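Lab meeting minutes (informal)
Scribe: AK
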Amino acid sequence: MVSCHMLKYLAVVCVIVTGVFVSACVGPQLKATTQASVFNLKSEDIAQGGLAFITSSSVTGQEEDRQALAMSFTEVMKTLRPNLRVVPLATTLSAINHAGLAVDYKRMLEDYRVTGIFEHKVLQEVARVSGARYVAQLKLSGFRQDSKNRLGMIGIRFVETKSTDLRLFLQVWDSVDGSVVWEGAEELTSARDTVAEETVTFKSAIEEAARQLLKSFP
């Protein structure tokens, strides 16, 4: 026979578990901070001139992350801004290699890490072979995933809080005069209570950061 004390205890557990599952069904909590500076760029400029993405930089140092960063971002841009003429990274790289510009392109990227400047002559060649006037580079300056137990009883974990912090930077150059015409940064924090062993994927974090940053894009 179950005692009154045990019934009360089970009732409390049921209430807590129900609340946990309801909380876990709520979507992720997002905090986005966007900074953007427009120097000389309008939407019609990119629609007419085109925007070619070049090799991204990443704090992870892994080639696959840099490729995935550019791919995910350009997919979101094409979806949200179908009026813009966007040249994906893979297309740009193929055009550079086909034109025999690989050595100059590598040197330009290496010099940029020191000077923060893309050499105008090489930038013009990259734009020419890609068929776009404007050149864009993405930088992943921060990416962190974390998981914390939020609630548990009698040795059983009910829910975890999964969080992702990401910092993304986009810079657009005009190949005609070698100037920076737009730049923006996005800091995104996503947190979600869940009872599953799921995490916020790298791809989904980049896509959400892209959606937030593109709200400020011309």
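Next up, CB showed the second protein from the same session:
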Amino acid sequence: MPTILVTDDDANIRELVCLFLRNDGFETVEAADGKEALAVYGSMHIDLVVLDIMMPIMDGWTLCKDLRRSNPDLPLLMLTARGETWEKVKGFQLGTDDYLTKPFDPLELTARVRALLKRYRIGSTQTIRLGNVILDRQIYKVVNGTNSLTLPLKEFELLYKLAGTPGQIYTREQLIDQIWGLDYAGDDRTVDVHVKRLRERFVTTPDFHIETVRGLGYRLEVKE
């Protein structure tokens, strides 16, 4: 199932939101402020973020802007006690997808989460098919015919990212931001290393290949 990051400085609210989401079948992780949320986001795969506006250290406005800059395809749901129109407008301008005001109906919360995941085509099966190759993000495993392979986390996330939009070019900087996170301090050549490993693993696979676009980055092409 998709993993939801719940960010709120109120521990009771976090517990309540996580309870509702888990009861509806989602995996959840928590963060108490925007800075912690970015660290969590950079360390694991997150499918959707529920975030409060008024938080210490880093508020929801800044968090929303940073998350949207690093990943334009990440669903964001603002959850706040404030309901003024100007705040909703500001949230949408910064990149949030939806807005829910406290106190909230748990059924409405889960319905909005499901609607956002559906809008972004993030399904509960979390699988991508490339010919005879199936990528299963729930267990980080690749099935190729009768053979299966469990990849290291970053290799799988890189392959899954490229496979999610075949033909789309991603720069090294985009892939670093979206897979390794904004706080990654290493060299962007690590993308090249991971691409090389993936090519070696699937050198005999006739269904796809990862193409280098000189001067730009990488894209995955599905073979006819």
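CB comment: The CA atoms of residues 48 and 74 lie 6 Å apart.
No objections, moving on.
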